[in-house]
Design goal:
- The chain is of the alpha+beta class.
- It has three domains: 75 residues, Nuclear Transport Factor 2, Chain: A, CATH 3.10.450; 36 residues, no CATH class; 68 residues, no CATH class.
- It is built from six helices and nine strands, in the order ααββββαβαβααβββ.
- Strands 1-2-3-4 form a four-stranded antiparallel β-sheet, with helices on one face.
- A hairpin with an 8-residue loop joins strand 3 and strand 4.
- It is elongated.
- The relative contact order is 0.08.
- This is DUF3027 domain-containing protein.
Amino acid sequence: MPIDDQLAAAVAIARAALDEATDAATIGDHVGVVEDGERLVSHHFACRKAGYTGWYWSVSISRAPDSDRVTVNDVVLLPGDDAITAPAWTPYRERIRPGDLSPGDVLPPDEDDARLVPAWSAGDGEEQTPDRFFAREVGLGREWVLSLEGRELAADRWQAGEQGPEAAIAQQAAASCHSCGFMISLAGPLSERFGVCANGMANDDGRVVSFEHGCGAHSGARLSRSAGAQKLPPPAFDTLTVDEVDNF
């Protein structure tokens, strides 16, 4: 459908409406007209407002069928293709990352979080299921426990993280945590893959580590002979030659 000629020619009307809505110093030249619908167009004017490079003023006008009366519908400031705009809003839950929480912050789980299941169902320790039925009846114990899916997600995350076998410090270690005397065993299904480091001199002290992780603070680490203290020869006293000393 061709653009309405009468509306396309109504540049002066659009400019007059724009003059009423904003300071004339912020209005630039007329840069075009766009058809928005039947007997509905928008006139665009360049924007000279400070800080709005690439934006433009848009004045929407229309007319009724069989009428020559032009009606101004709206005056807005819009970003163009080269305009600097704020990034799309990202919800807080999608922006937060591990380590972002500060004292007093609250981050509740989603209502349908797949990592959690009711305490009476099979979860992080199936062997506790009979006790969970009793706990539910008397109101004791945890309301929610880690689901099987949540347990696997945690295990995969730990295995691929800084406490896993791919960490740079583990790649340089001579032995793994599985054989280290400082490793504390875990209970439950994860005990076959992970433990807790109890070496106060190690980087991972107090953290869950993969059996395949490792570091230089392994309980079986020993210094090589070249790295040990070297025994120096006894000092020699030269009583035959004369030391030359510069005169100052």
